[in-house]
Amino acid sequence: MTLKQVVNNVAEMPASKKAVVDINKLSLTFQTADGPVYALSDVDLTIEEGDFVSFIGPSGCGKTTLLRVIADLEQATGGDISINGVTPHEAREKRAYGYVFQAPALLPWRSIERNVTLPLEIMEISKEERVKRAQEALKLVELNGFEKKFPWQLSGGMQQRASIARALSFDADLLLMDEPFGALDEIVRDHLNEQLLKLWARTNKTVAFVTHSIPEAVYLSTKIVVMSPRPGRIIDVIETNFPNDRTLDIRETPEFLEIAHRVREGLRAGHSNDE
Amino acid sequence: MMSGQTGPVCVVLIALLVLWYVGAVFMNAPTQIDRYDRADQTWTAGQLIEDTLAQDRPILPAPHQVAVEMYKTIFAIKITSKRSLVYHSWVTLSSTLLGFGIGTLLGVLLAVGIVHVMTLEKSLMPWVISSQTIPILAIAPMIIVVLGAIGIKGLVPKAVISTYLCFFPVTISMVKGLRSPQVIQLDLMRTYNASKWQTFWQLRLPSAMPYLFASLKVAIAISLVGAIVGELPTGAQAGLGARLLAGSYYGQTIQIWSALLTAAFVAAILVVIVGWCERRVLVRMGVKS
């Protein structure tokens, strides 16, 4: 496999797959007491069905804000964005996505199973069905057997897996993940990355994943979006072509290192802009 | 945990009893010496101490006098008797519980309104706070008189005073408790497109439970105070407040102290019951025990 096959530019890719997220000239400005903050500026991006897209960049580059705009947790102040052809607001009403936050955000008074069934309860799905789906979701993150435990009885990594199960439980096609493993140590993180990749390959979901770890982004993604702060913008989009059943070993390959290098160069270029 | 507390609690109790006895001897000695003088009687220190602790209407009755009176009026008398402290406690307790129930409900409803409706916070909160700046002793007779004038007498006016006192800590704590969910948890509910109602039941209310119970302990105790205060202006018909008032009319200090201690015990038992409920609920909510 040559580097040219692994690395492709977005423009060269055939646009055959269905666009899940379509962003055009999107911008978001926060009005603060110290004047406007340009969180996002002129962002163009398409996320296609089955993509695993990572957003990487230094803090303040707007990667989390962009994810929150997709999730309708923030509203853009300019440009267009559509999720499955409708506005983010309508997509949220249709429960089109599962969101995984930086912290597990499990409700401490609910057992793991009841945490996973929380969205199903809100969606008024029958109890029988809720328990069945919770079982399936917990199996996907290898947490079966922990249904009756309370969150404090689980380690940080297990809690985050439970929160992923919760996002999977209602089977949305789009998974939005905001630095889900950022607070975990590297060994746990590697393990969860492997699990997440398997899960993605098996379920064929579309994933948008915010991170500030280069190896994580390169290992997981089919498409890496490199962002830069002040104003938050996209400075590079890198497509990768690793096989779906890749293991952590690919991190030693020249292709992997080459892409990691390109990401790092992008980050550096973006950074030098504001000095 | 109990065994760790029993020792210190006993030490404090013994110290208090000793202080009380010493206080009783010194407070009652002048009248006792007076009495000896009028009877032209010689006396010794031992006799003085013995007599100061056995007066009929002492300035400060000795603990055992109060204990004997409490035993008589709680256990030795039929509970339907007008002299039974059980009867009077029940009268006070019933209006305490009614006031506590209504006050808690009112407090929670106000908090729910204040948390969900911005204008309610602006318009209601100052009134909630200023309501508590009026001395209850000043407003209690007004409530009794006004309600009496429109034909509401007995249990309800006293319960209204309890309600007036106990809704306040519940409102303040519940406003804080209902706002205690983290932003990330509220965002989570938003991603599920949860309604305000669902967010309230699934997130805000459970988050507020520890706050609610902390305030209920305060509320139940001041609810009892409210009921007792409410009994004072009614002409001392029934209830622990009535016993206090009747005792002070006739200089029956032993009776006053018995009623006082009984009120304290009732309050303590109520607080313990609330604490027990709190533990039950929090354990069910998966709190580490």
Outline the fold blueprint.
The complex is a heterodimer of chains A (275) and B (289).
Chain A: H1 3-6, E1 8-9, E2 19-32, E3 35-48, E4 52-56, H2 63-70, E5 78-83, H3 88-93, E6 97-100, H4 112-116, H5 118-122, H6 127-140, H7 156-168, E7 174-178, H8 186-203, E8 206-211, H9 214-220, E9 223-228, E10 233-239, H10 254-273
Parallel strand pairs in A: 4-8, 4-9, 6-7, 7-8
Antiparallel strand pairs in A: 1-10, 2-3, 2-5, 9-10
Helix pairs in contact in A: 6-7, 9-10
Chain B: H1 2-38, H2 45-52, H3 63-76, H4 85-116, H5 118-131, H6 136-149, H7 155-178, H8 183-191, H9 196-231, H10 240-249, H11 253-284
Helix pairs in contact in B: 1-2, 3-11, 4-5, 4-7, 4-9, 4-10, 6-7, 7-9, 9-11, 10-11
Can you tell me the number of structural domains of chain B? Answer: 2
Shape of chain B: elongated
| Terminal CA distance of chain B | 12 Å
The top-level CATH class of the largest domain in chain A is Alpha Beta
CATH-defined fold name of the largest domain in chain A? Rossmann fold
CATH architecture of the largest domain in chain B: Orthogonal Bundle
The CATH superfamily of the largest domain in chain A is identified as P-loop containing nucleotide triphosphate hydrolases
Mean pLDDT across all amino acids of chain B:
90
Q: Report the structural category of chain A.
A: alpha/beta
Q: What proportion strand of chain B? A: under 5%
Unreliable stretches of chain A: 8-15
By DSSP (H or I, 4+ residues per run), the number of helices of chain A equals 10
Query: What's the CATH architecture name of the largest domain in chain A?
Result: 3-Layer(aba) Sandwich
Q: Sheet with the most strands of chain B?
A: none
What is the residue-mean pLDDT of chain A, rounded to a whole number?
Answer: 88
- Assigned CATH superfamily of the largest domain in chain B: MetI-like
Output the structural class of chain B.
Answer: mainly alpha
Order of helices and strands of chain A: HEEEEHEHEHHHHEHEHEEH
Specify the biggest β-sheet of chain A.
Answer: 7 strands, mixed
